Every structure is written in structure tokens, then in C-alpha cells.
Amino acid sequence: MAKDQKTQILFVCMGNICRSPLAECVFLAESISRGVESEFEIDSAGTGGWHEGQDPDARMRDAAHAKGIKLSGSARQVRPEDFSRFEHIVCMDQQNRDALLSMGAPSSKISLLLEYDNSVTEQEVPDPYYGGEEGFHHVIDLVSSACQQLLDHLTKKREKR
Fold it and tell me: What's the CATH code of the domain at 57?
């Protein structure tokens, strides 16, 4: 890939209403704050289609808003063409990574978001959907830190091209 081509990133969780839209919006905001947003194409999707077309979960929007994060987007399900379109497919947990592999995604493109954050001991971003408010805040902290480090990693990788 040429240096002037955008790096394509797809964030993936189960329903695309909590974790992956959060990661998409956090990564975008961080790339804007660093002035590198034009270098990336960012999207999010879910391995399931239950929430197709819906806004992000209201509890996640409220928790994000409380931390100064604007959460937007509309849920969609992962499509087979995503596997060729995106250079990086970043999953929130192993269950969704496994689902993508069973759908035919190339393992070389898939990673777990928290692999990029060596400041945490957790390996997966937990799904806050069935928990309380505290779970949403914890997920925001994990995703925010990991997205900053993912952006560091990808920016350095782009500079080497």
C-alpha cells in the first residue's frame, strides 16, 4: 500500500451498538486531534444483525457524553466484502474474532483491540450491554486507551512506508 492511500480499519463487536461504534468514534476523534484523520478510513460493524440501522445504545451514548465523547453512527452487520475492503479488522473480544474467522475473514487482518494496549491486563473489551452504568464507563476507559495506542502503532507503520 502506498503511503498516500488511507489505512482502512473496521472495529467489530457483536451488535454494533456499544463497543465497536465507541471505538470508531474514539479513534476518529483521536485522529482528528492529531491532524491525521485524512490518513484513515474508519468504520464499525457487528457480527450479528439484530440492531441493523439502530443508533448506538442510549446507555453507551450517555456514558460517552459524560466523558466528552460524541457517539454516532448506525449499526450494521459485517459483510463478506469487508474482508477485502479493510486492511485491519479490530475485534473487541475473542468470540467475535472467532465469528469473523468462521465467516471467512483472513486471520492476518484480525486483531483484538486490547492487544495494542500494554497498560492493561485484560485481553478483551467486556460487553457492557447486560450490566450496569459502571460497565459502560469501564469500557470507555479501555477503548480510549487502546485506540490511542492503536493510532500510535498505525501512524508509525504508515511513516515506515
Answer: 3.40.50.2300
Q: Are 112 and 94 in contact (CB under 8 A)?
A: yes
120-149 pLDDT, tens digit each: 999 999 999 998 899 999 999 999 999 999
Residue 98 lies in a domain: yes
Alpha carbon of 73 to those of 16, 27, 53, 80, 159: distances in Å? Answer: 9, 14, 9, 20, 30
pLDDT tens, position by position, 20-53: 999 999 999 999 999 999 999 999 999 999 999 9
Reported as a single tens digit per residue, the pLDDT across 69-78 is: 999 999 999 9
Domain count, the chain: 1
Distance, CA of 161 to CA of 148 (rounded, Å): 21
Instruction: Name the strands in the sheet holding 7-13, side by side, starting at the edge strand that comes first in the sequence.
Output: 40-46, 7-13, 88-91, 110-112
Q: Has residue 1 got a pLDDT over 70? A: no
Is the pLDDT at 94 greater than 60? The verdict is yes
Range of the domain at 47: 7-159
Looking at the annotation, which residues are catalytic? 13, 19, 127
Q: For residue 46, give the H/E element and its range.
A: strand 40-46
